[in-house]
Amino acid sequence: MADLDLIPESTLPYPPVYKDKRFVVLSDWDGTITTQDSNDYMTDNLGFGKEKRRAGNLEILAGRQTFRDGFREMLESITANGYSFDACKEELKKNIKLDVGFKDFDTWCRTNDIPIVIVSSGMAPIIRAVLSNLVGDEVANTIDIIANEVEVEPSGKWNIKFRHPSSGFGHDKSRAILPYRDLASPPLLFFFGDGVSDMSAARHADVLFVKQKDDGENDLAAYCTREGIKHIIFRDFSQALKVVQAVVRGEKTPEEVLAAGRV
């Protein structure tokens, strides 16, 4: 496998920053817009399994391993078992579901001129394929995706191409947020996440939403609590929509909704 740490940082472009918006939504994809993390699903079912994957996540949360290296190990366990990239995409299209409230959330944001940008530590071709399968090409093609890419070798073996290979995150999500802070009139930023891959973004949103999971894997919530980062716990986007509407309409301030802590 090629040394991914030697891939230049600039090889993966960013979509344009929305300079004339009052509000922008940035959201993790896996386990946030979807009900299950596609990379966790592949690792648990096609790779080295949930027990080893979960142990790795806890190492990342504790700071003993980088997300980049742990994620790479997860994906290598899938390719080691002989699964092609196309086979993985088809498996995920059959099994990954959309958050029950996301379509209505997306529709309301579109109606109110609020862009939604997916900021993911996953791989853009997988995200695009699954998103199109869930919401249709017409909607999916209008949503910006900032994520890692994939290199597929002639043999069919594939590996991740990290957006920021020298970063311990592989994809440092703060770099998708911080350019908004440099604008003369920056928009108010909502960020949605759920796991260890979102730690790099957690400090930089105006309103941070953290998705509650029933399986106990609430790593971003644990990180934010430990670091004293104010956040709102939500279960699905129908709950989050009410909070976003209240802020956008001026009924509540970001400080007021963050003080509530959950919806």
Poorly predicted runs of 5 or more residues: 1-8
SSE order in H/E notation? Answer: EHHHHHEHHEEHEEHEHH
CATH architecture descriptor name: 3-Layer(aba) Sandwich
Radius of gyration: 18 Å
**Overall pLDDT, averaged?**
92
Query: Quick one: overall form?
Result: globular
Helix content: 40-55%
Distance between the termini: 45 Å
CATH topology, by name, is: Rossmann fold
Report the biggest beta sheet as strand number plus sense, adding barrel if it closes.
7 strands, mixed
| Strand residue content | 15-25%
Distinct helical segment count = 11
Count of all domains: 1
Q: For this structure, what is the CATH homologous superfamily?
A: HAD superfamily/HAD-like
CATH class: Alpha Beta
Side by side, the strands of the main sheet go 4-3-2-1-5-6-7
Number of strands: 7
* Alpha-beta classification: alpha/beta
What does this structure look like?
The chain has a single domain, classed as 3-Layer(aba) Sandwich (Rossmann fold), CATH 3.40.50.1000. Helices cover 41% and strands 15% of the residues. It has 11 helices and 7 strands. The chain has helices at residues 38-46, 50-61, 67-80, 85-95, 102-111, 124-135, 137-140, 174-181, 219-227, 237-248, 254-260, and strands spanning 23-27, 116-123, 144-152, 158-161, 188-193, 207-211, 232-234. It has a 7-stranded mixed sheet with strand order 4-3-2-1-5-6-7, sandwiched between helices. A hairpin with a 5-residue loop joins strand 3 (144-152) and strand 4 (158-161). Helix 1 (38-46) packs across helix 3 (67-80), helix 4 packs parallel to helix 6 (124-135) and helix 5 (102-111) packs parallel to helix 10. The protein is globular. Mean pLDDT is 92; it is low at 1-8. It comes from Mycena maculata. It holds the Pfam family HAD. InterPro entries: HAD-like_hydrolase_phosphatase, HAD-like_sf, HAD_hydro_PyrdxlP_Pase-like, HAD_sf. Keywords: Hydrolase.
